[in-house]
Design brief:
This protein is mostly helical. It has one domain. Helix content is about 85%, strand content about 0%. It is built from 8 helices and no strands. Helix 1 packs across helix 5 and helix 5 packs antiparallel against helix 6. The protein is globular and about 55 Å long. It starts with a helix and ends with a helix.
């Protein structure tokens, strides 16, 4: 299972490196969206507003939806599913590999957006660094959940519009816990309670994916 996961993750990441869709389309979209959030707040409120963590995760959510669609677009190439069936790859390994690749892409994009939040929204750098571990775990959980919902909606003509409808209710607890962790890191609050929610969600999505990904992907 681990070998399959590494093979699938390496394949997905190589595709992104060669296509440069993440670098030239997804990341610029996220940066522009973050800049628009800063403009909406206005120069007088960008540094003093408590909306920074929420805006960061809102932009991250939009980027995540784009990445989930992108992650499953590569599986729609002619012959891909039949090749996977012929090779007899473990569905659990495929799930872990795709989740890992998506998580790596989200972590890299999340770092860029976090730097943008410090520059554009005037988020405190020290608080952003304290919040970084919780952001990493939250994005990892989003990657696992996104891989599941991406498999559930993949293949249909309305998959791009169906994905947000199904995924947003599931993403909501993660986004709330992530935003609260970020906010508490900026204001010296207690992080443990929100950490528990994010870690439990991550473990739950990994377990569900390992058990059910093969069924959802069919």
């Amino acid at each position: 299972m681990i070998r399959t996961a590494l093979l699938v993750a390496g394949k997905d990441l190589r595709i992104e490196v060669r296509s440069r869709v993440l670098l030239w389309q997804v990341v610029p979209f996220g940066v522009i969206a973050l800049l628009l959030c800063g403009l909406a707040l206005g120069p007088a409120h960008a540094g003093s507003s408590s909306a920074g963590p929420g805006l960061y995760y809102l932009v991250t959510l939009l980027v995540t939806l784009l990445m989930i669609n992108r992650s499953h677009v590569v599986e729609r190439a002619p012959g891909t599913k039949s090749s996977i069936a012929t090779l007899g790859l473990d569905p659990a390994g495929v799930f872990l590999g795709k989740s890992l690749a998506l998580a790596v892409e989200l972590w890299l994009t999340g770092l860029v957006l976090l730097a943008g939040a410090v520059l554009v929204l005037h988020t405190a750098l020290h608080g952003a660094l304290i919040a970084l571990p919780s952001i990493v775990v939250t994005l990892g959980a989003l990657a696992c959940a996104g891989t599941l919902y991406g498999a559930l909606t993949a293949g249909g003509e309305t998959s791009a519009t169906l994905l947000p409808v199904l995924a947003l209710p599931a993403f909501a607890p993660l986004l709330i816990a992530g935003e609260r962790s970020f906010y508490d890191a900026l204001h010296g609050g207690e992080l443990l309670g929100w950490w528990v929610i994010v870690v439990v969600a991550l473990v739950a999505y990994v377990a569900i994916g390992i058990l059910l990904y093969g069924v959802l992907d069919e």
